[in-house]
Amino acid sequence: MKYSLLDLAPVTEEGTAATALHNAADIAQHAEKWGYSRFWMAEHHNMEGIASAATAVALGYVASKTEHIRVGSAGIMLPNHAPFVVAEQFGTLDALYPGRVDLGLGRAPGTDGATLRALRRTPNDAENFPRDVQELLGYLAEAQPADVIKAVPGYGQKIPVWLLGSSTFGAQLAAHLGLPYAFASHFAPDYLHHALKAYRDNFKPSQYLDKPYAAAAMNVFAADSETEARYMMSSMQQQFIALRRGMPGKLKAPVEDISRVGSPQEIAGANHALTYTAVGTKDTVSRHMNQFIDDTGIDELILTCHGYDHDARLRSFEIASEVLNER
Hints:
This protein is an alpha/beta fold. The protein is built from 11 helices and 9 strands.
């Protein structure tokens, strides 16, 4: 099976957006050596701890620093954009790096109300998501001589389009359109199995796919000792606690005792969001990862490691690749 990597380009307390983006390219360079097939980045706005807001630009930088690994958005939040502009952006990426670009689309705005207004969008724009997806697919299709509007670059380039989701809505739409589907189980575990079942049960073969192709994400914090792995994971736990408090910021340094950071209820909430997480040594993460693959029957596993130390993240992805290459 294929496996890929999602990097949110985390900006640490001691770091900068520039460092985060350089780190992303470094991880991608290692990932293609370790056998990862795809490198995903995601659109988030007004978040000091994530440097991938201009996702197409960030992916272009990563693609320029790598040789063959595919680069993709997981995702572009389509309600924030005109479908025509997205077609041009990813058409440009594909023109520069042919055969290496994937366009994953999400329905959530990925930000707060005030930022939506700064983007000149409204919450109601998400209601147009199915129509916008079909419009975008039209721009990426083969243009006809009579077409008044053509995405240049973009049209006829056959860029793979994915739908992403954390509920059954995206699964149903992906099934209806015959598109590949990815579930964000690394932070939204509750509807994973419902969404995968809805996608497979309702899938309609299309010009894009003959049969369903499903991916799902999980966190991996792998290290040479259980203590190191738990220590690395504590930064992600702190991030969720801060989000629930309405105080998002840069990624915090790990701590040895997470109970000193949050209340039992806050830690429980963070741990629930991180239900699908493999944390520990190679043997431990191997059990978790293989169980996740077997339970879901996915065609592609997406791994993410929102850790503080760059070298520790590299080691985590390396250990995970060893597990998957041995599978």
